[in-house]
Amino acid sequence: MPDRRKFLTRAGYTTLSALLTMGFLQKDKQKEDYSINTIAANSTRMNVNSPLREVAAAKGKRYGAAISGEFLQTDKDYANLIARECSIATPNGELKWNATEPQPGKFTFESADAIANFCQKHNIELHGHTLFWHTGNPDWVSYPPTFEMIERHVKGVMGHYRNSKVLKSWDIANEIIADNENETDNATYGLRKGVKPELIRDLFKIAASVDSSKKFYLNDFGIEGATWKSDRFLKMVEYLKNNGAKIDGAGIQSHLWFSTAYPFDEKGFNSVLKRLNDLEVKPIITELDIIIDTPLPDSIKKLDQMVADSYKRYLDLCFAANVDTVITWGLTDRHTWIRHPDWMPAKFRGNPSNQRFLRPLPFDENLQPKSARNAISQAFQQAT
Ligand code: XIL
């Protein structure tokens, strides 16, 4: 947005109408029209349709999405929409272990580099996801991987992006906390079976030895409230802080599933955000998408409004607690992961007629803005 228009937006109408009345800003109609109607139209147009990246930037924040290299190549409208709306982007799969080191010591970065080049072309920051996960690994990688596997992988992948102009942050470890106490052999930190806290500490330390210029996150889901999992996630963040690991942020994935069956735990979520801020580990919203479970409303229009209201409520809480980065897990329902049979919630898998209600993202399958997008825009605009 040209500097002059930024000034106009910030100045506000009252001042401008006074200046216009005093003739200070009367401009040659042929060149630039500062009439209040044009300003209002422009401002309205900027407010309602301004790219989310601009609305976020106006508040010193970033908005982005998970993106797929395949669709960047094959779907130009999608690529253009990403470029217009996003100031940060996470590769959907191109920086996972099976994409970057398919064979021991053999690194492949073509698909990730293509995304990095797209990001550089469109001034989009790239978020690295992820160096350590229990899935998305080639068959030769055990879980947990051995120290030697981890050291070679981190040095190879982080080394490749050390001087990247766009990659500024990493999910050093992803989803290391088990889903419940039956799936861990570690009562304190609830780590997945076989994972020791020392291994995660060493992972973060190896990463810092390769490239401490990037921001390092621990990323997980199911921690958007006071849960068994969020308690252990926070304990693990504190363990890393107290044991010499560089941890800058906590990725709160935010795959939100709202329903009357389990209302959102606002109080618990606020306590998670507060704990992270007290630990000086910035809360980052890394994979936000929102689905409304059954009972479903009787129309898509109502569903979209419920999703939009949920986005607004969630982001208001985030922005009240120092969150400055919001990444949705995709930009358009056209490519949402949650419509894929492998990942679709069981209640929808068993009921194909309900799948049209899987509309978790800001843009619909025709790349048209939804009320969710306007809700996200409003949340950024109202952020203090
Ligand atoms: C998902 C991708 O979106 C899918 O395309 C892929 O098949 C599986 O992984 N949490 C994460 C992401 O950290 O990496 C996952 O992404 C979604 C859940």
How many domains? The number is 1
Count of distinct strands: 9
The helix/strand series, from N terminus to C terminus, equals HHHHEHHEHHEHEHEHEEHEHEHH
Q: Which outline best applies?
A: globular
Strand content: 5-15%
* Largest sheet properties: 8 strands, parallel, barrel
The termini sit apart by 21 Å
Low-confidence stretches: 1-46
The CATH class label is Alpha Beta
Helix content: 40-55%
CATH topology: TIM Barrel
Structure overview:
With 384 residues, the protein is α/β, with parallel strands linked by helices. It has one domain: Glycosidases (TIM Barrel), CATH 3.20.20. It is 42% helix and 14% strand. It has an 8-stranded parallel β-barrel with strand order 1-2-3-4-5-6-8-9, surrounded by 4 helices. Helix 9 links the parallel strand 3 and strand 4. Helix 9 packs parallel to helix 10 and helix 13 packs parallel to helix 15. The longest helix is centred in the C-terminal third of the chain and has 20 residues. The chain is globular. The N terminus is likely disordered. (3S,4R)-3-hydroxy-2-oxopiperidin-4-yl beta-D-xylopyranoside binds next to loops.
What would the keywords be for this entry?
384 residues, alpha/beta, TIM Barrel, 15 helices, 9 strands, globular, binds (3S,4R)-3-hydroxy-2-oxopiperidin-4-yl beta-D-xylopyranoside
What is the strand and helix layout of this fold?
Layout: H1 3-11, H2 13-21, H3 36-49, H4 52-57, E1 62-67, H5 69-74, H6 76-85, E2 88-91, H7 97-100, H8 110-121, E3 125-129, H9 147-160, E4 167-174, H10 197-210, E5 215-220, H11 228-242, E6 249-252, E7 255-258, H12 266-278, E8 282-292, H13 300-319, E9 325-328, H14 346-349, H15 371-382
Parallel strand pairs: 1-2, 1-9, 2-3, 3-4, 4-5, 5-6, 6-8, 7-8, 8-9
Helix pairs in contact: 9-10, 13-15
The chain binds (3S,4R)-3-hydroxy-2-oxopiperidin-4-yl beta-D-xylopyranoside.
(3S,4R)-3-hydroxy-2-oxopiperidin-4-yl beta-D-xylopyranoside is lined by residues 92-93, 174, 253, 287, 337.
